[in-house]
């Protein structure tokens, strides 16, 4: 990819310090660098950022936040496939084919899975009498779906946040005795981990299943194959998870 391509839009301002275009061996801190990158779109911060003011840091806040995250996930996978989604902003879906037929199968399955997750979470939200996530349409930074590389970089960053949010929901739900939240979050988290591995595989990360544990519950053998990926960030609150999405420059409406 040329230097011109790297400057094509805000997505590259967000991700330009990520070692995505270097050999796999030097990309071991990929996720961490995505999360630390600067250049978030102001509209995203002004929009999604307002949501964090209504959270009270409880387990049920994670359910509301997860509804927003799943809508973003559906928009991402639909845009990557070029078909869009009910949550996609006009003009966002890819106009070029970004994936081969096999990888399109991965993404179609992920789109279907995120859609099912949203249905379950909406049902939980309604049954608990919780407020809906206030945004339904999400615009990604310019250039996100202009190339395979920028699209995968965003997908990897999103899945990292989703996993961390669901891990936080499991912990918070368990701590307050809310088995419904903890169980739903645990079951969905496992599928988000599958999505991350598939994205790693498409990106050429070897091995794509690159960690023994999401957190630090135990230390794997030193220099063991399968322990090259960074541990996941476990978000303590729903506010923290939404702020991580804000940092990616996703603008809601």
Please, could you describe this protein's structure?
The protein has a domain at 57-85 and 115-212 and 230-246: Ferritin (Up-down Bundle), CATH 1.20.1260. The protein has nine helices and two strands, in the order ααααααβαααβ. α4 (42-51) runs antiparallel to α9 (238-246) and α7 runs antiparallel to α8. With 253 residues, the protein is mostly helical. The radius of gyration is 17 Å and the shape is globular. Residues 1-9 and 12-46 have low confidence and may be disordered. A two-stranded antiparallel ribbon has the order 1-2. 45% of the residues are buried. The protein has helices at residues 3-6, 10-15, 30-36, 42-51, 59-81, 101-127, 148-175, 179-203, 238-246; strands spanning 138-139, 251-252.
SSE map:
Elements: H1 3-6, H2 10-15, H3 30-36, H4 42-51, H5 59-81, H6 101-127, E1 138-139, H7 148-175, H8 179-203, H9 238-246, E2 251-252
Antiparallel strand pairs: 1-2
Helix pairs in contact: 4-9, 5-6, 5-7, 5-9, 6-8, 7-8, 7-9
Calculate the terminal CA-CA distance, rounded to whole Å. 32 Å
What is the N-to-C succession of helices and strands?
A: HHHHHHEHHHE
Strand count, sense and closure of the main sheet?
Answer: 2 strands, antiparallel
Low-confidence stretches: 1-9, 12-46
Strand coverage percent: under 5%
Number of strands: 2
Mean pLDDT: 82
Work out the helix count.
9
Tell me the name of the CATH class of the domain at 57-85 and 115-212 and 230-246.
Mainly Alpha
Order of neighbouring strands in the sheet with most strands: 1-2
**What is the correct CATH architecture of the domain at 57-85 and 115-212 and 230-246?**
Up-down Bundle
Radius of gyration: 17 Å
Q: What structural class do the secondary elements suggest? A: mainly alpha
CATH topology of the domain at 57-85 and 115-212 and 230-246: Ferritin
């Amino acid at each position: 990819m040329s230097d011109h391509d790297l400057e094509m839009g805000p997505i590259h301002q967000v991700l330009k310090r990520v070692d995505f275009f270097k050999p796999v061996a030097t990309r071991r801190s990929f996720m961490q660098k995505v999360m630390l990158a600067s250049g978030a779109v102001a509209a995203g911060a002004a929009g999604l950022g307002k949501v964090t003011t209504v959270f009270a840091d409880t387990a049920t806040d994670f359910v509301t936040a997860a509804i927003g995250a799943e809508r973003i996930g559906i928009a991402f996978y639909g845009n990557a496939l070029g078909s869009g989604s009910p949550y996609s902003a006009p003009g966002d879906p890819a106009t070029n084919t970004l994936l081969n037929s096999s990888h399109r199968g991965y993404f179609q399955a992920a789109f279907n899975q995120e859609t099912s997750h949203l249905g379950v979470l909406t049902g939980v939200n309604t049954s608990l009498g919780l407020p809906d996530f206030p945004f339904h349409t999400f615009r990604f930074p310019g250039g996100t779906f202009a190339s395979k590389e920028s699209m995968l970089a965003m997908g990897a960053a999103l899945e990292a946040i989703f996993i961390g949010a669901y891990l936080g929901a499991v912990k918070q739900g368990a701590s307050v005795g809310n088995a419904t939240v903890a169980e739903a979050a645990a079951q969905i988290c496992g599928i988000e981990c599958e999505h991350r591995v598939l994205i790693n595989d498409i990106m050429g990360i070897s091995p794509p299943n690159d960690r023994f544990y999401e957190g630090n519950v135990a230390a794997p053998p030193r220099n063991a194959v399968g322990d090259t990926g960074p541990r996941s960030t476990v978000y303590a609150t729903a506010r923290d998870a939404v702020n991580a999405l804000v940092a990616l420059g996703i603008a809601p409406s």
